[in-house]
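note to self: dont lose this again. the chain is below, predicted strucutre after it. 637 aa total, dont forget to put it in the shared folder this time
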Amino acid sequence: MEKMFTSTRDEVLILGKYRMGETQQSVISVGTKVEIKIGKGRRKPYLLLRVIPVEYLQRAWVFPTEYPSAEISIITSNGEYVVQSASMKSRSFLDYIRGYNFQDDYNQVENLAERLRTTDKGLMQYKNFRGEDCYWYYSSFGKDLELDILGYIPVNQMNRVEVDWNIVWIVCGSLFVLMLIDGIYILTINKKLKQALVLAEQANQAKTDFLSTVSHDIRTPMNAVIGMTDLARTHLNDPKYMGECLNKVAWAGNHLLTLINDILDISKIESGKMELEAQPFSLQEAVEEIVSMVRPQADQKKISFEVRLHEIFRDVLVADQLRLNQILLNLLTNAVKYTEDGGSIVLDISQERIEQGIEPGIEGIAQEKKTKVKVNESAINLESRQNSPLRSRNSQSSQNSQSSKKVRLICKVVDNGMGMSPEFQKTMYHSFTREEDSRISKIQGTGLGLAIIHQLVNLMDGSIMCESELGKGTTFTVYLDLEVAEQESDALCRDFNWGEEADRCGISLMHILVAEDNDLNWEIIQAILEEYGVSCERAENGKICVEMLTRAPKGTYDLILMDIQMPEMNGREATRMIRNMEMRGELEGRIPILAMTADAFAEDIRACREAGMDGHLAKPINMKQVLSALRTIKNKI
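---
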């Protein structure tokens, strides 16, 4: 209590164990120093004391361990009990140890008493009242309290390890399964890595072969271009010979264009950047356009080219006509290329009606009719177009199928050419692959045509089938489910007859502003348009184009032909600026703008339309489309 009065710290101290009252109940006394204010500026120290019955502490005491036989007590440094465990029935801890360990050796007890007084903690080994060897541990509550916490645990409980073999087997089994799964996974990964390595090596070899083939295919037409150009220069006084040279230069240039387009298309498709541009189109006009391009090639090899149109329920469909044309054109040009002179090719196109809620399978194709299509130089004519029973039935079918939103377009290309081996048919849709045949190696090609066809058909959610046998020919069948257009197509660029005179075309005296940064391209378009009585002015970039249009009086220009990739300001930026100026009233009226660019993918066409352009013409320039577009715009002015 004197220590508590002299202490400067606010702490609760244990005073000791006492017996109170008539019942002599054992209690623990605890206390702390407090100061009570007794007047102005005066404080007086007091002791705040409390007693806690030992029985209460014993009931509330829980030994913090998982061992059920362990016990714990609180003793003073002299070995007296403050809180006594259930089995320690002796008067003090020292008497307990003496009674069960040193009945005949009091010196050992004295050594234990000295140890408790002079040390703060320790570990000992003595027997308990049952005669069991136990580990005893004591630790002081604090230097000034002279109290120790004391506990013991039987040695046999510390040494005994209970093993649940079920758990052991479960753990071992789980580890084995995990190791097995990891091993299988590692083997699978290694197998895939080996396969990837083989595929990578094959791809590298295929690309090496492709580059070698492409190098050869590029040099061949380039040699023709350069050689025929040199020959034409040496025969300037022989128009007939010059004409033949120029025709061969044009053929070589078209071959180069096809080669470049194939490479661009396959890279675009394989990178996942190819997009489709669905627009209404006339099926008959599309077929006419394709036939007009293939017919001259077939005539050159004296190949019989037959076209059949039957069971056509709806003529105007919705699809990416450019890609549909590309599929059919690639199949037909392949058929011409790999069919020997004097052979035959058939293009068979039909439709199968898809009723609402019913999707007939491939086996449900309508039976082919025998009505044939005769091919003229640039058109397709149905036999007995007006009076044919088939014509009447198709018209009625068309009326009955108004409620059907889709039709299945079935396109067959049949030839009696070289055919393909079963081995090649397994890889014929892979890029850069060609049949190993001495006859085929002499034919120009990159091995990309079928790969592009297959990818395009997949993009259009269609399917393609092939039947082929060496020496007997090949049949490709393409199935496409296409939407039916609500109204007729009004595409801007229609086929144009080159034989028409300029005044009959209706484009003479037009004045056009051409935004073109390339000198050679400008020279070509200017020279060609002047042949048809069309005058042109040039703007070297989009910024100059806007400035020239702003300075010119209203009606100066009937049309703008706008390149896209130009310095300072590209064609789309210039078009947006012109449309904004028209909306603000800074320019009177709305001038037609046509893109004339080498950016010819579907996303490029859509970007031009979103910028405010009225149409798209792809480079190299197709003058049939250019003149047709000019005529259409002239008629709308």
